[in-house]
Specification:
Blueprint: H1 9-44, H2 50-77, H3 84-116, H4 118-124, H5 127-152, H6 169-199, H7 205-245, H8 248-266, H9 268-285, H10 289-306, H11 310-314
């Protein structure tokens, strides 16, 4: 197995300093915000909805990520060997970040179905179905994170430090189906929801304000998702390209870029708190939005049913 030289100590110290600057506020804000969110979604809200199920699962994933952040700093600062602690933190990290991405994707799909197909939403959506999907994803990702070292079939000397330049095709599979496919789904669903809401014919000023707020929430969630995760996964693709080209001279710079972009991606576990706030508002305001969509769809169906076929009119 071909290895590249170790990173420059000055560069690594700079990365550690950057991680401290980012992670200290993230952990300091993330812990109380997640605690408050748990209290609101688990205790204060009475009605179980699909959004509530997704948000609770998202909070669990974010809480585990917050727990792993101090260890990421330690593994960057020191050459920690691959031991049981390393495997534990790796399993937590490589389970909960993809889980956060997939839950956000599920939320986007759920909103798309509710807004685009309001009549079918009663059949396709339910809290039990949402919980079942989340449970399936948890089991799948936990199994994958446990089998991940065996699937990669390589031995690294230090924890969370890929020293070899051997291309990792299973990691490429994870990058594509773990982020870029969900990214396409989130963008498609969000754009379609925004277009659908803008086309709705609203009669009262209250409904106009409600639709505008819904468009704002969907837009903010989409921007946060793209800005936080895209740089990290793009740099992972770049690292794969460097490994394929065996450009050992670029490995140190690309690895540093990955660690810096990972700080932005991991900060999402704190930024999700704003998603929690908007989701809590949905419980109070959006239930009145869905019946509006359903009633408008029903009216359109009645109008179409009342109109005679085109060929009969022609005759």
């Amino acid at each position: 197995m071909e290895n590249c030289t170790k990173d420059d100590d000055t560069l690594q110290n700079g990365i550690v300093l950057f991680q401290l600057i980012v992670y200290i506020p993230v952990v300091s804000l993330g812990i109380p915000l997640n605690t408050i969110a748990f209290w609101v979604f688990c205790c204060k809200l009475k009605r179980w909805t699909e959004t509530r199920v997704y948000m609770i699962n998202l909070m669990v994933a974010d809480s585990f990520l917050l727990f792993a952040l101090p260890f990421l700093i330690y593994f960057t600062k020191y050459d920690h060997p691959v031991d049981n602690l390393c495997f534990t933190i790796q399993n937590i990290y490589f389970t909960n970040m993809p889980m956060s991405i997939l839950i956000i994707t599920l939320i986007a799909i759920d909103r798309y179905i509710a807004i685009k197909f309001p009549l079918k939403a009663k059949i396709l959506r339910s809290p039990l179905k949402s919980a079942s999907v989340c449970g399936f994803l948890w089991i799948t990702l936990i199994m994958y994170s446990y089998l991940r070292p065996k699937l990669h079939e390589r031995k690294e000397k230090f924890c969370l430090q890929k020293q070899s330049i051997q291309p990792n095709y299973s990691a490429l599979f994870s990058i594509i189906f773990g982020y870029f496919v969900p990214l396409g789904i989130v963008i498609f669903c969000s754009v379609q929801v925004i277009k659908c809401l803008k086309k709705k014919m609203v009669t009262s000023p209250h409904e106009t304000k409600l639709f505008q707020k819904a468009i704002h929430i969907v837009s903010v969630n989409l921007c946060v998702f793209v800005i936080c995760f895209s740089p990290f996964y793009i740099t992972l693709l770049l690292r794969f390209a460097v490994d394929v080209a065996r450009a050992c001279s670029l490995v140190s710079e690309v690895r540093a870029s990955i660690q810096i972009c990972a700080c932005l991606a991991n900060s999402n576990c704190c930024l999700d708190a704003f998603c929690y706030y908007f989701a809590a508002k949905e419980f109070q305001e959006f239930p009145s939005l869905f019946p509006t969509c359903i009633s408008m769809s029903s009216k359109m169906n009645k109008i179409q049913e009342s109109q005679p076929p085109t060929d009969q009119v022609m005759t």
